[in-house]
Amino acid sequence: MGHITDTLLNLHGPVIYAVVAALVFAEAALFFGMVFPGETAIVVGGVLASQHRVSLPILLIIVAVSAVVGDSVGYEIGRRFGDRLLDTKALRKHREKLDGAHHLLRRRGAMAVFIGRFTAILRALMPALAGSARMPYGRFLVFNAMGGITWGVGFTVGGYLAGTAFEQVAQWAGRVLAIAVAAIALIAIAIWFVRRRRREAAEQAVAAEEPVAVPDLREN
């Protein structure tokens, strides 16, 4: 990872756009994110933008488009190859993480695509899992775009503002995003709990209104 980071820092001009786009695209499309987290590449890109070696607006567009398109390719791979792909030797080593991603997808549906964008292993696997689960592409695309744009802009601008201190910013941004995702999860759990209590209360009310059978004493 350090070698790739050093290589990025030594690039100039349009090559920077091409390399950052390739790394972000390959993260989900080729499962490269399990080896090299994409946020490292875009934070470095932001640092290079702060040094005026690339244009920040152009970099933001490239990162967002690469993230959305890469995840869409990962979705299509999962839709076409499904469990055969997920049972390959390379992915069997991550069985526990795969099971956790499956569980998150079952519980959160399309929201899992957005949440997964902020964790390296989920970012690499979630698009293929969504495709394998036959999630409607339109729904996938909406949450994929929201996550890709939020993630891409956040980390790129973070790198831009931090200049050469990209490693510290990546850690800080990761913690902030982790807190934000945890807050979203807590809100979702609270909503689910309130709905369940309301449903139980409604069931109890219906049960209370049902007539009680009175035994016929004349039979005795």
Automatic annotation (TrEMBL):
<dbReference type="Pfam" id="PF09335">
    <property type="entry name" value="VTT_dom"/>
</dbReference>
<feature type="domain" description="VTT">
    <location>
        <begin position="36"/>
        <end position="160"/>
    </location>
</feature>
<comment type="similarity">
    <text>Belongs to the DedA family.</text>
</comment>
<dbReference type="InterPro" id="IPR032818">
    <property type="entry name" value="DedA-like"/>
</dbReference>
<dbReference type="GO" id="GO:0005886">
    <property type="term" value="C:plasma membrane"/>
</dbReference>
<dbReference type="InterPro" id="IPR036259">
    <property type="entry name" value="MFS_trans_sf"/>
</dbReference>
<keyword id="KW-1133">Transmembrane helix</keyword>
<feature type="transmembrane region" description="Helical">
    <location>
        <begin position="141"/>
        <end position="166"/>
    </location>
</feature>
<keyword id="KW-0472">Membrane</keyword>
<keyword id="KW-0812">Transmembrane</keyword>
<protein>
    <submittedName>
        <fullName>Membrane protein DedA with SNARE-associated domain</fullName>
    </submittedName>
</protein>
<feature type="transmembrane region" description="Helical">
    <location>
        <begin position="172"/>
        <end position="194"/>
    </location>
</feature>
<feature type="transmembrane region" description="Helical">
    <location>
        <begin position="15"/>
        <end position="36"/>
    </location>
</feature>
<feature type="transmembrane region" description="Helical">
    <location>
        <begin position="56"/>
        <end position="75"/>
    </location>
</feature>
<dbReference type="InterPro" id="IPR032816">
    <property type="entry name" value="VTT_dom"/>
</dbReference>
<keyword id="KW-1003">Cell membrane</keyword>
